Amino acid sequence: MKIFSLKKVIISSLLLTISFFIEFVFTKFFFQDCHGSLIKLELLPIVLIGFLFGLKFSLCANLVYVMIHTALEWPIINMFILNQTRYLQLSFLMFFFIFPYMAYSLSGLFQIKNSPYLMKKNIIKSLLLISFMQIISYILCIYSFYYYSYDSLFLIFESDSWIITHLNPFLSIYWILVIYINIMILLTNTLIGCILLFLKPIINENTEFNL
């Protein structure tokens, strides 16, 4: 039992390392800053941990990822004077970073302990559930800024996103962010789903995951 748990920890740690590599190398250098990127491929390994090892391992791995990610993104929050409004600071941290990222742990609810580990219907169900939770979280975040009329939220993305820059003359910043976030969720989760479907036969035939 201890050997099996150790193998799970090792594989989860490897996938978590891949996640950071994708974020800081692939996303940063080939797309844009991680906080404003439309496609967040770094979350794929987190989803995979849930499918392979269940909710407990997925939550633990995701919590480590979110803690490190939040610590790195904290200066962004302070750059835009959010520290002057503690409620907004907490709201931004919880609803924009922590909850949407932790939602990917829900893939652990669809774990299958024996092969096949990945099933098409489970992949679709999990990503739909994750997307729903993320949309709710982001809407709560945007509503908090709308309630306090804090338009500086726009500055967090203005320099990174050509979509927001081009839509700004025509729509309210809050509607722009709603559109942007929904596009981000759609692109990210659709791409993650496609990659998981591509990896499905490879992972299902690998007996190393039969822990």
CATH class annotation:
Mainly Alpha
Could you report the average pLDDT, rounded to the nearest whole number? 77
CATH topology term? Arp2/3 complex 21 kDa subunit ARPC3
Report how far apart the termini are: 9 Å
Topology pattern, helix = H, strand = E: HHHHHHHH
Helix content: over 70%
Structural class: mainly alpha
CATH architecture: Orthogonal Bundle
- List the total number of helices: 8
Transmembrane segments: 12-31, 43-68, 88-106, 127-148, 173-199
Keywords: Membrane, Transmembrane, Transmembrane helix
Which keywords apply here?
211 residues, mainly alpha, Arp2/3 complex 21 kDa subunit ARPC3, transmembrane helix, transmembrane, membrane
How would you briefly describe this protein structure?
With 211 residues, this protein is mainly alpha-helical.
Could you outline the blueprint of secondary structure elements for this entry?
Elements: H1 2-30, H2 44-53, H3 55-79, H4 86-102, H5 120-147, H6 155-158, H7 162-167, H8 173-204
Helix pairs in contact: 1-2, 1-3, 2-3, 3-4, 4-5, 5-8
Describe this structure in words.
With 211 residues, this protein is an all-alpha fold. It has one domain (2-209): Arp2/3 complex 21 kDa subunit ARPC3 (Orthogonal Bundle), CATH 1.10.1760. Helix content is 72%, strand content 0%. It contains eight helices and no strands. Helix 1 runs parallel beside helix 3 and helix 4 (86-102) runs antiparallel to helix 5. The radius of gyration is 18 Å and the shape is globular. The model has no long low-confidence stretch (mean pLDDT 77).
